[in-house]
Design brief:
Helix content of chain A: 55-70%
Distance between the termini of chain B: 45 Å
Number of strands of chain B: 16
Order of helices and strands of chain A: HHEEEEHHHHHHHH
Largest sheet of chain B: 6 strands, mixed
Number of helices of chain B: 11
Number of domains of chain B: 2
Radius of gyration of chain B: 25 Å
Structural class of chain A: mainly alpha
Strand order of the largest sheet of chain B: 8-9-10-5-11-12
Oligomer: heterodimer
Largest interface: A-B, 23 and 26 residues
Largest sheet of chain A: 2 strands, antiparallel
Helix content of chain B: 25-40%
Shape of chain A: elongated
Shape of chain B: elongated
CATH class of the largest domain in chain B: Alpha Beta
Strand order of the largest sheet of chain A: 1-4
Number of helices of chain A: 10
CATH topology of the largest domain in chain B: Rossmann fold
Number of domains of chain A: 1
Strand content of chain A: under 5%
Chain lengths: 266, 333
């Protein structure tokens, strides 16, 4: 078999495992959709000031005023990409490292690249599905518009998907064992999600500046742009994608240097 | 098979190239020397056992040979190929069963076999392998629903999916119940019957004795003895052991004076080591012998037809005795 065929086979097997593992599938899909239903219902009909703040007289200053759900749908779609690519992948890789499966595969001719391609390809498929599902639910229930710029949206999702997969592989190096994986994953993503303004737009200079260090913020910005919640020329914002790319390169460097195929010897 | 690999610098024994040739292997983990200068060769078609307690360095050695670890020193040639230089070539032709049986999550038995079959250039038909390992009934079951023995059969089936010339089995029966262990033993004998070379680690001496053509006794990363089980026993645990239940009043000292007796250990059982079992047995059966408790062999307690000697057992030495003799400790310590 060619390397490509082997990789595709791995993707298929990974997808099969993902959908059979209901907890993981729910974690990837359930949370963003659930929050979309809760917040989408609560704030339906209200508006938000993307990248700006409402003045005392209720005017959106420094940003764009859009219906809340026009902002919230792309934000939850971004969260979905994060859970399928970062959270699920990290937890699943650490599990397999701990139970010896990664080492077992190293004993076969399967190239490391084909193995990584398998988990990455599968995560990307799940990511595209969760984004599509979020957009459909948002459109049908909350009258959110379809993504204004489909191509930039797809490019953003795929690029961010790869970047967060690679960061996930990198972070496995500091996760001591499978029990610790969910804690590390949530601790490194949920706080940043909040300060990056995934749920509410807020105005706090300190948190705002901290958020801008991390790729999650830029991914959200890129999604808002591509979905049309932010004004742009054609749905592209090079700065967002560049920051994502830089984080991807960092993640790759850490992965290549520190990734472990088996748990530490006890 | 035509190999395009460079000719290896393997040792030739009897004109034939060994399947595995290990020279001066060293592996350290920090200050701990796990493998301390191992040199040995495994010949084609033999079942080679590595016997030693946990932490002796068996698994580390195996994983270096399989191309999973890099040694700190030494050379390893497997099937004529330098493993350290061409691990991919070697992995195509060997079968590996690791100590911890790890399978992809949420996978059925047939799917697992298909998945592993797809990893090799050449592999055996999936259904044939499933049948051969008696997994037909479980082919559509999730792998986490298998019993310990079934899981181990699957694990070995996966190691053989590429029809390898050389198979590594790392503690294949550890944790299995006796029935499942016997089953795995016959599986391994089947592998041997097809002319494959097998390297197995174990800390069960019965397993090594039954399955292995040659056994390397490993202790603290070194080979302390290497030979056939029979020769190891005749060298390090020679003679016969005659055992019977201890009796109150037995005179151990006079028993030690019986011709042919080399050693007597008496606690719950009396254990006599000898190289002349017929003389010792003859002496034991003499009711007027001086070591018999007062009252004679037909004493009041014994009753008609019952002697002093009960639960008599005559056995030869075992690898357990060999290990004890070589290292001063038991295999399962």
């Amino acid at each position: 078999m060619s390397d490509l065929a082997v990789s595709l086979r791995q993707v298929r097997a990974e997808q099969r495992g993902f959908w059979r593992n209901r907890v993981a599938a729910l974690f990837g899909f359930g949370f963003p959709i659930m929050f979309l239903l809760i917040f989408g219902t609560i704030f339906k009909g209200q508006s938000t000031c993307v990248d700006g703040t409402f003045s005392a007289r209720g005017q959106c200053v420094g940003g764009a005023e859009v219906p809340y759900n026009n902002f919230f749908v792309p934000a939850m779609a971004a969260w979905g990409v994060l859970t399928t690519c970062f959270s699920n992948l990290t937890i699943s890789v650490v599990n397999r490292r701990d139970n010896g499966l990664l080492k077992r595969l190293r004993g076969t001719p399967l190239p490391s690249a084909a193995f990584v391609a398998g988990i990455l390809g599968s995560a990307l498929i799940s990511a595209v599905i969760v984004v599509a599902l979020t957009a459909v639910v948002g459109h049908l229930l909350y009258q959110a518009p379809w993504p204004a710029h489909p191509l930039p949206a797809l490019v953003t999702v795929l690029l961010a998907g790869v970047v967060f997969c690679v960061i996930g592989l990198a972070i496995t190096a500091v996760i001591p064992n499978a029990d610790a994986a969910p804690a590390v994953v949530n601790f490194t993503s949920l706080p940043i999600l909040f300060i990056s303004g995934f749920f509410f737009n807020f105005n706090n200079a300190v948190f705002g500046d901290i958020a801008k260090v991390f790729p999650i913020y830029w991914f959200k910005e890129s999604m808002l742009t591509a979905f049309g919640a932010k004004p742009s020329s054609g749905g592209w914002n090079g700065e967002d994608l560049l920051v994502l790319l830089i984080w991807g390169v960092l993640g790759l460097a850490v992965t290549l240097r520190f990734f472990r195929w088996e748990s530490r010897r006890v | 098979m035509i190999s395009t690999e460079p000719m290896p610098a393997a040792t030739r024994l009897g004109g034939e190239m060994a399947d595995i040739d290990v020279t001066g292997l060293v592996k350290r983990y920090g200050d701990v020397v796990a493998v301390d200068g191992l040199t040995f060769a495994v010949q084609k078609g033999e079942v080679f056992g590595m016997l030693g307690p946990n932490g002796a360095g068996k698994t580390t050695t195996l994983e270096i040979i399989e191309g999973l670890r890099t040694p700190d020193a030494g050379t390893v040639t497997v099937l004529g190929t330098d493993v350290l230089a061409h691990p991919g070539t070697v992995k195509e032709r060997i079968g590996v069963q690791l100590q911890a049986t790890a399978l992809p999550p949420f996978t059925k038995v047939r799917e697992a076999v298909q998945l592993f079959a797809a990893l090799y250039q050449r592999s055996r038909p999936v259904e044939e392998v499933i049948e051969e390992f008696n997994l037909g009934e479980k082919a559509d079951a999730y792998t986490d629903k298998l019993s310990g023995g079934q899981m181990q059969r699957l694990s070995i089936a996966l190691a053989l999916i590429n029809d390898p010339d050389l198979v590594f089995l790392d503690e294949p029966t550890t944790g299995l119940d006796p029935q499942a262990r016997l089953n795995i033993w016959s599986v391994i004998e089947g592998i041997k019957g097809r002319g494959k070379t097998v390297v197995l680690t174990t800390h069960y001496m019965e397993e090594a004795e039954r399955l292995c053509d040659r056994v390397a006794v490993i202790e603290r990363g070194r080979i302390v003895a290497l030979d056939t089980p029979r020769r190891l026993i005749s060298q390090y645990a020679p003679g016969t052991t005659v055992e019977f239940a201890n009796v109150p009043g037995l005179d151990v000292e006079s028993l030690r004076k019986v011709p042919g007796v080399e050693r007597v250990v008496a606690d719950g059982r009396v254990s006599i080591t000898t190289r002349k079992p017929e003389i010792v047995l003859h002496a034991l059966l003499d009711p007027s012998a001086p070591w018999v408790p007062s009252g004679g062999a037909d004493g009041d307690a014994g009753g008609e037809g019952e002697g002093v000697i009960r639960d008599l057992m005559v056995r030869h030495g075992t690898l357990e005795d060999v290990f004890l003799r070589l290292t001063g400790r038991s295999l399962r310590e």
